[in-house]
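User: I'm new to structure prediction. If I give you an amino acid sequence, what do you actually give back? Let's try with this one:
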Amino acid sequence: EAWQWRWARYTHEKMTPRTLTGDSKSPIVSLATSLQNTVYSGAGDGTIHVWCTATNTHLRTLQGHTGAVNALAVAEDGAVYSASADTTVRIWSGEDGSHLGTLVGHTNVVACLAVGLDGTVYSGSGDRTVRVWAAWADRTDGAPRLMRTLAGHVDLVWSLALSKDGKLYSGSFDTTIRVWSAVDGSHLGTLEGHTGAVYIVAVAADDTVYTGSRDGTLRMWSGQDGLPMRTLQMDFAVLTITIGAGNTVFIGDVKRRVSVWKGGAALARTLYTFASRVS
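Assistant: Good question. You get back a string of structure tokens that encode the predicted 3D arrangement of the chain. For your 279 residues, that looks like this:
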């Protein structure tokens, strides 16, 4: 059966979904968007599909990975990064989809990505490390340079997020979130409180940190001192978090629901229930 990706604009009380449909039988594992009305969807079969949201058309398919595409990220210069279960991160041109290079070094699946405003790339892996790569524009001898490796987690690193004040947050199946300096890679602290694997870390514009876990909670942490601020009991594993204007928090859970938490105070309502798992 053809797979579908459904997206929506949230405005106050309205949610109007649109659907992009393709002919692949492989599930969508990851998504990323660019400012050029382009959506990238990573699939379980290792392919990346590129869509134009202005016309709802499929533009091209990027091929090269030999494992599921677990994460996608678009840099400020338009370069597209894809992390895969094949242990590599591939770099693609945002203009024509051509393959630009490959980041090699992880020894297990690459599960997550983050790209800084300066183009620095961060990749988290099942090998329990975060690797930091120089921007594509700063490559030497045609290859991106590995700047450092961050070690400390004792299980798979599943989520990464950057804050405006220069911190990198890594969420792990070891139930913790480690805080690193995005400047020199030093370990700044560890956020502890979850009792299950941390599936997602997101940072708001005011540097408040939101984390979701297999333990069924959404937790808020101060970006300044790392102290816990609030815990929202969701009852089901929280798989994904997106933060919109005014710190409106959109939460995807294992029960296929997308819910919204407004104002950091209470769960407002469930926006949509999908036919398959939200990831």
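You can read the tokens as a compact description of the fold. Here is one thing that stands out. Confidence is low (pLDDT under 50) at residues 1-13, 271-279.
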